Amino acid sequence: MKARVFVTLKNGVLDPQGKAIGHALNGLGFGSVGEVRQGKVIDLELSESDPAKAKASLKDMCEKLLANTVIEKYEIEIK
Amino acid sequence: MKSAVIVFPASNCDRDAATALEQMTGKKAAMVWHQDSVLPDVDLVVLPGGFSYGDYLRCGAMANQSKIMGAIKAHAAKGGAVLGICNGFQVLTESGLLPGALMRNAGLKFVCKPVSLSVEETQSSFTRKYDKGASVTFPVAHGEGNYYADTETLDRLEGEGRVMFRYRDNPNGSARDIAGILNEKRNVLGLMPHPERVVDPLNGGTDGRALFQGLIESLS
Amino acid sequence: MTKITPEMVREHGLSDSEYATVLKLLGREPSFVELGIFSVMWSEHCSYKSTRVHLKKLPTKAPWVIQGPGENAGVIDIGDGDACIFKMESHNHPSFIEPYQGAATGVGGIMRDVFTMGARPIAMMNALRFGEPSHPKTRHLVSGVVSGIGGYGNCMGVPTVGGEVNFHKSYNGNILVNAMCVGLARQDKIFLSAAKGAGNPVVYVGSKTGRDGIHGATMASAEFDDASEEKRPTVQVGDPFTEKLLLEACLELMATDAIIAIQDMGAAGLTSSSAEMGDKGGSGIELNLDMVPQREENMTAYEMMLSESQERMLAVLKPGREDQARKIFEKWELDFAVIGITTDTNRLVIKHKGKVEADMPITALSDAAPIYERPFTKRAPMTGAPAYDKAKPVLASLEKILAAPDMASRRWVWEQYDNSVMNDTIQHPGGDAAVVRVHGTQKALAITTDVSPRYCRPDPFEGGKQAVAEAWRNLTAVGATPLAVTDNLNYGNPQKPEIMWEIVAGIDGIGEACRALDFPVIGGNCSLYNETNGEGILPTPAIGGVGLLKDVTKMATLAFKRAGDVVILIGETRGHLGQSIYLREIEGREEGAVPPVDLAVEKKNGDFVRGLIASGRVDTAHDASDGGVLVAIAEMAMAGKIGASIGQAGLADGISFWFGEDQARYVIAAPFAEAEKIVAEARAANIFVAELGKTGGDTLALDDSDSVAVSKLSAAHEGWFPRFMAGEEIPVRN
Questions:
Q1: Do β-strands B188-191 and B178-182 pair in parallel, antiparallel, or remain unpaired?
Q2: Please, which pLDDT band fits residue C220 given cuts at 50, 70 and 90?
Q3: Per the CB 3.0–4.6 Å rule, which of B16, C302, C503, C712 could disulfide with C423?
Q4: Torsion angle of alpha carbons B206, B208, B209, B214, nearest 10°?
Q5: DSSP H helices in C172-306
């Protein structure tokens, strides 16, 4: 089973990289760009066939390592 | 004072910390590999600067999963002194031994330069040899030293006198100019600037010596 | 077996005559893998086929040289059983394509060259040349290269202590990224690449092999017609974390006596490392590619032999030591595999999936590699003393020069490099030379990189001489004894006779200066074909120099230390403005003869200044080079935040005195009583000496007629780079 984890900064936490990207996009003439937030995508392969179990295990992974929940939030997608 | 320096894969200020400790205490620091599960009998544990695990995923995140972290947490719980410098500070926040997180510098660039700090509190074995409000100069060398914590945590840190060092000219966007903080029990210090790089007059000054002298007085 | 077509031969960069030699050497048609191996081993990069005959003329010996050119890096004796190992290398083209990764992998490559010889790297430098600031790509390239160098070097925990950054339109389409690494080892623990003896295990350590950086042209050939997009050559990506582990693991293994030979896998990876080790050891090497740790699936023998995946090493161990070595690499979580064995056949044999993919004499790749005496057309050097407006106000020009792109402070650059890690950096970036202490001792190494490309096009010979002389002078100015150099020769297309002349004359100039100054060349690198749209770059023979300070407490820095010191100029000023910064920045012209270097005078003046510093009598010194004496004094004032009141001395008029770029000159400052003695001693030794004035106050005051605040000069000097990088300024040269 394949899974994808999205890790992004929590709302309200300043994202200087996102800000710089937004600034650069505006500079390139993409005037419609408002706020930009950037994050990480982590693709994983799991030897688990039960989606519920996989999801629980992924949640544990996020809490323990993949995200720092002081500043980051995460979403899990199972394919 | 007996001390140990933890060596994570791609720690790179481990030797600097050990050299400074030896210079200040006259005793060699024990170098402890991250896969060890026990600490030698020491008074002070130093988590050195560097790029443990290449700073991949998040600075300090993978080092926090090392075997030795259990022993470090136990040492801290017993009241043993822990000093986290730069990457070591990042590991301490990842581990929960210190609150908050260290984010990408606001300027988005790595920054290496001497910075002026004010010593905010002297009620700790780390800062007792400084004068309150004193100006000291330590170098910083980091890309992710932008201290973040929610308002409540920041207020608490300030209220409890746990903000130990503050930048006079903030190099990284840290909340409330915070450069170094203490845990609740006042035995764990994390800071981004490098006191171990300022113990020798030939290469940058001696403002860091008092930090080690304070520890020696308290822990010996 | 793949039939080799003339098209494939061409795509592999082999000429018809070179391919005819291949056929003769093998006595048959090469296999496709063999063709690939010949292609890389006979490339300019690996074989030095255009420059070898000229490089042989360089002086490479001195009593303190332990290892000259030919190994991964050169080695010098710095006393007490210590050795200094260093080299400079280019990563120009990859850095133009992908500045971050190009520069990062350049740093990683040169570090491996140094630690593969047993040294712990202790300092990095880099010489960078970019296009005009106004060129649309320049800012992006500067930003990427600087963060790439920092990203790799900072993670390695090796301080980046200095270097050069220049801008010129000839680099618009072809930037130069030359990185230098300096390391320390014990003299009895130096590792070479000669794989002596048969029956010894050949081991592969480090990262896995992927399809990184396989030569682009070859990918279009028959075997890859149906290759998917994913198989296309990719930019090499550096992994400093793995390199840091590789460094520690290699040093740990080197502390044992298990190694016979070791070599990093740089350009042409497995091919060049195995061929060079076999060649130097006079042995043969047989590799079984099935055993190579692979990152991607279904890699062919061709791909594995040509891959330029980073952070890999090849070593030959003593038999039976495999497990001892394996344990060390496993501790550091690195790949370790025995992939072959040395033989007594002098042949390179490559096996893969039960098939012999290559079987060729190793000497065919080394001794039999083509060597060319390429034709060159001499060009008379530019001559003449250009005219200039003698009425221009001196201090206004100074302020403008200090803020010019080539002269402004590089703080924006070096603050992104960790320059104090390892706790032995005694002089940080911004001085004449960086000074890095030998850990645990009172001695230190001084390090610099220098070349003035603007001198090298008008007069390639004098330009080559001047590059060496300036490196020697910069080391001298901190009080170090210059010991040896590494050169990084960046030029255009050697098949053009006028470019070949620049190369030949440049090497001759370097050779002459190195001989006269007792400053041997112990290693280096050539980067040719640096051209865009048929226009070559300015000839840029970068010189990396290393010197020794026996006692780091007797050292000079450029900052003024005290008010009331006498400012003394050592060396004669005739007011040479040809090809000067002043002429270019203020008059807007690049004309005239370059300043000649009189090597005897250079040596005499330098030895005098060094003697003053080494005996502890002078702690303030700076060489007067780019921009002339006034720029030198301004830099000393800005660094010390102390002004000076000075007047001109000598025959030249104001502008040519203050801004002339006559060589072999130093500005020093010393208290009055000492200064009087120094002046008398210089006169007695027939050295040109002049008292220019006194330090003090917070302005730079000239001839009691005009003055400018030091803080104003600093603002101009510090301001340009950050403003440029923030996109606030598109400077236009007048």
A1: antiparallel
A2: very low
A3: B16
A4: 150
A5: 240-254, 269-281, 301-306
Mark yes or no for CB contact A17/B108 under 8 Å: yes
Based on the residue annotation, tell me whether B196 is a catalytic residue of this protein. yes
Cross-strand bridge partners of residue C85:
C75, C183
pLDDT at C234: 60
Percentage of chain A exceeding pLDDT 90: 57
Question: Which amino acid type is present at position C374?
Answer: R
Is A17 a residue whose pLDDT tops 90?
no
Does C423 sit within 8 Å of B110, measured CB to CB?
A: no
B86 included as an active-site residue: yes
Report CA-CA distances (Å) from B131 to B116, B134, C686: 15, 5, 56
Burial of A64 (0-12, 13-18, 19+ CB in 10 A): exposed
Going by C-beta distance under 8 Å and a sequence separation of 6 or more, which residues neighbour residue C730?
Answer: C133, C134
Q: What is the average per-residue pLDDT within C352-372?
A: 93
Q: Catalytic: which of B86, B94, B142, B144? A: B86
What's the rounded mean pLDDT across residues C261-276? 90
In the set C12, C54, C91, C622, the catalytic residue is C91
CATH number, domain A2-78: 3.30.1280.10
The shortest CB-CB distance from C241 to any of B49, B53, B196 is to B53
Q: Which residues in B have their CB inside 8 Å of a CB on C?
A: 9-10, 12-13, 15-16, 19-20, 49-51, 53-56, 109-113, 139, 141, 143, 194, 196-197, 200, 202-204
Mean pLDDT (chain A) is: 90
**Residue C217 confidence (pLDDT):** 39
Angle between helices C460-477 and C497-516 (to 10 degrees): 30
C240–chain B Cβ distance below 8 A for any pair? yes
ipTM of the complex: 0.96
Domain residue ranges of chain B, discontinuous segments joined by +: 3-219
CB–CB of C222/C2 below 8 Å? yes
- Mean per-residue pLDDT for B57-82? 95
Q: How crowded is residue B179: how many other Cβ atoms within 10 Å of its Cβ?
A: 27
Domain B3-219 has CATH 3.40.50.2300: no
Residues of B within 8 A of A17 (CB-CB) are: 104, 108
Cβ distance C417 to B110 less than 8 Å, yes or no, reads yes
Mutate to test the interface with C, among B202, B207, B209 (most CBs of C within 10 A): B202
pLDDT tens for B152-205 read 999 999 999 999 999 999 999 999 999 999 999 999 999 999 999 999 999 889
Would you call C415 and B112 a contact, using CB atoms and an 8 Å cutoff? yes
Domain ranges of chain A: 2-78
Rounded distance between C-alpha atoms, residue B18 and residue B38, angstroms: 19
Which residue is closest to C444 within chain B, CA to CA?
B202
pLDDT at position C212: 82
- Contact state of C244 with B9 under an 8 Å Cβ cutoff: yes
Per-residue pLDDT tens over the stretch A24-49: 888 888 989 988 999 999 999 999 99
- Cross-chain Cβ contact B103/A71 below 8 Å: yes
Find, among B55, B52, B7, B44, the residue nearest to B22 by Cα.
Answer: B44
The tokens of C650 are what?
């000598």
Interface of A with B in 60-79 (CB under 8 A): 64-66, 68, 70-71
CA separation for the pair C166, C639 (Å, rounded): 21
